[in-house]
Amino acid sequence: MAAITIVRADPAHLEAVLPLVAAYREFYNQRSAPSRERAFVAAHLRDRTSVVFLAAIDGVAVGFVQLFATASTVQLGTGYILEDLFVVPEARRGGVAGALIERALNHAHENGAVGMFLETASDNAPAQALYERLGWTREGRFLKYNAPL
């Protein structure tokens, strides 16, 4: 099995991250929007308003995770939203997603976070199985609501 390398993405990694973001959005049935994807990702990498870790095998980008910091008044500290996690189909089941999650959790620990959470599609059974295998627990106390914008 080839070694997985993970780096924190910066603006120099934009071209490696963009195809992954496009594929991730396609996975969630979003229309292709190359110029908007470029602007969105470039701004976050440039301004460091998110944390993106990029996974590669043999120098080829195969996955990414994106975190956003959030504040918790209840826990009186900073937490992280694991907003995006994607691995290309041909690299799945090879430990890439687990390695990205581990790196994300290490980042949270290194920065004194009080917690991390994520949401996934209710029909994304493979992702749910991974999270549960890694010790994540399904939310049971709160309901999520979406505003009609």
Topology:
Blueprint: E1 4-8, H1 14-27, H2 34-47, E2 51-57, E3 60-72, E4 77-87, H3 96-110, E5 115-118, H4 125-133
Helix pairs in contact: 1-2
If helices are DSSP runs of H or I spanning 4 or more residues, what is the number of helices?
4
Provide the gyration radius in Å: 15 Å
Instruction: Report the major sheet.
Output: 5 strands, mixed
**Residue windows where pLDDT falls under 50 for at least 5 positions:** none
Overall, the morphology is globular
Percent range for β-strand residues: 25-35%
The strands making up the biggest β-sheet line up spatially as: 1-2-3-4-5
* Overall pLDDT level: 94
Distance between the termini: 46 Å
Account of the protein in words:
This protein is an alpha+beta fold and 149 residues long. The chain has 4 helices and 5 strands, in the order βααβββαβα. A 5-stranded mixed beta sheet has the order 1-2-3-4-5, with helices on both faces. β4 (77-87), α3 (96-110) and β5 (115-118) form a beta-alpha-beta unit. The protein is globular, with a radius of gyration of 15 Å. The mean pLDDT is 94.
Concise overview:
With 149 residues, this protein is of the alpha+beta class. It has helices at residues 14-27, 34-47, 96-110, 125-133; strands at residues 4-8, 51-57, 60-72, 77-87, 115-118.
